[in-house]
Amino acid sequence: MNTGLLLYIPYRHLENRVMTAIRAAGFDVTLAQARLLQRLNPGGSRLTELAEAAQVTKQTAGFLVDQLERAGYVRRVPDPTDGRARLIQATAKARAAAPIAEDEIARIEKEWEEHVGKRRMTQLREALGKLCEITDPYR
């Protein structure tokens, strides 16, 4: 099995568990919407930046933002640095889902650590962090 697949399978498992926890808590978001929400900058993001970070077209990002705005997860506000531009910001409703996701991630990482051992989990995190230095353009 190639390394990419070895990275993807555990990530997919984590993502599915997080989405299950978020939905169980009453947050009605799709996976595509959640992936977009994850990429919002704390102060807000322009649509073009958001589309690039989420690796979707501007049209797809706009469609997802429209859905999220109607559901109350984001709002569009004027960009203070450019009067013609708008920023997409997470609302309190969206921010309320973050602790649920973080708690589920902590549970998953604890399970993984119990399975592979603390030393290996530490080494895995260190190795992945090192790889991010050369693979993450948004770092």
Structure description:
This protein has 139 residues and is mainly alpha-helical. The chain has one domain: Winged helix-like DNA-binding domain superfamily/Winged helix DNA-binding domain (Arc Repressor Mutant, subunit A), CATH 1.10.10. The protein has helices at 3-24, 31-38, 47-54, 58-70, 92-116, 118-135; strands at residues 74-79, 82-90. Strand 1 and strand 2 (82-90) form a beta hairpin.
> What share of residues is helical?
55-70%
Shape: globular
Q: Look at the helices and sheets and give the structural class.
A: mainly alpha
Give the neighbour order of strands across the main sheet: 1-2
**What percentage of amino acids are in beta strands?**
5-15%
Number of extended strands: 2
In the CATH hierarchy, the architecture is Orthogonal Bundle
CATH topology: Arc Repressor Mutant, subunit A
Contiguous helical run count = 6
List segments where confidence is low: pLDDT < 50 over at least 5 consecutive residues: none
What is the terminal-to-terminal distance? Answer: 28 Å
Order of helices and strands: HHHHEEHH
Rg from C-alpha positions? Answer: 17 Å
Oligomerization status of the protein chains: single chain
CATH domain class name: Mainly Alpha
The average pLDDT score comes to 95
How many structural domains can be distinguished in the coordinates? 1
User: How does the major sheet shape up?
Assistant: 2 strands, antiparallel
Superfamily (CATH H level) name: Winged helix-like DNA-binding domain superfamily/Winged helix DNA-binding domain
Top keywords for this entry?
mainly alpha; single chain; two-stranded antiparallel sheet; 6 helices; Arc Repressor Mutant, subunit A; globular; 2 strands; 139 residues
